[in-house]
């Protein structure tokens, strides 16, 4: 079942740490292109992920959708796709993902993340 993200607040910190704002806003998920800020948020117990710019070779995407891919580092789910990427490269990774897009992942963490 698809889920949607709602954005209630947005703040710009001019390069300073966002941690104070994230805590005050009771942030559920912090997304940033700055891996150091993501690491800082994670160390403070805030769910966070690094956003990457799309590669030069792009496919046509919707202007009205936000697409997010989560990498669970084999803790939340199987690392099968990552192993395929490391062994065979990005093109084979995308082929595998497309071929298995409707297949459940092998391993799911039994914990619930608030």
Major β-sheet strand ordering: 1-2
The low-pLDDT segments are 108-114
Rounded to an integer in angstroms, the radius of gyration calculated over CA atoms is 16 Å
Helix-and-strand structural type: mainly alpha
Count, helices: 4
Q: How many strands in all?
A: 2
Rough outline:
elongated
The figure for the number of domains is 2
The main pleated sheet reads as: 2 strands, parallel
Distance between the termini: 18 Å
Pfam families: 5-nucleotidase
Organism: Hucho hucho
Protein name: 5'-nucleotidase, cytosolic IAb
GO molecular function, one term: magnesium ion binding
Tell me what the structure shows.
The chain has 114 residues and is mainly α. The protein has two domains: 10-60, no CATH class; 69-114, no CATH class. Helices cover 30% and strands 5% of the residues. It has helices spanning 19-24, 35-43, 80-88, 90-99, and strands at residues 30-32, 48-50. A two-stranded parallel ribbon has the order 1-2. Strand 1 (30-32), helix 2 (35-43) and strand 2 form a beta-alpha-beta unit. Helix 3 (80-88) runs antiparallel to helix 4. This is 5'-nucleotidase, cytosolic IAb. One of its GO terms (cellular component) is cytosol. InterPro entries: 5-nucleotidase. One of its GO terms (molecular function) is magnesium ion binding.
């Amino acid at each position: 079942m698809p889920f949607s993200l709602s954005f209630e607040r947005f703040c710009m910190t001019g390069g300073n740490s966002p941690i104070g704002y994230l805590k005050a806003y009771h942030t559920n998920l912090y997304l940033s292109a700055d891996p150091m800020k993501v690491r800082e948020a994670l160390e403070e117990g805030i769910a966070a992920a690094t956003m990457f710019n799309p590669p030069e070779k792009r496919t046509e995407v919707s202007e009205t959708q936000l697409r997010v891919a989560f990498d669970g580092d084999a803790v939340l789910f199987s690392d099968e796709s990552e192993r395929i990427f490391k062994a065979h490269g990005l093109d084979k990774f995308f082929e595998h993902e497309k071929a298995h897009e409707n297949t459940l992942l092998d391993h799911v963490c039994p914990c619930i993340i608030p």
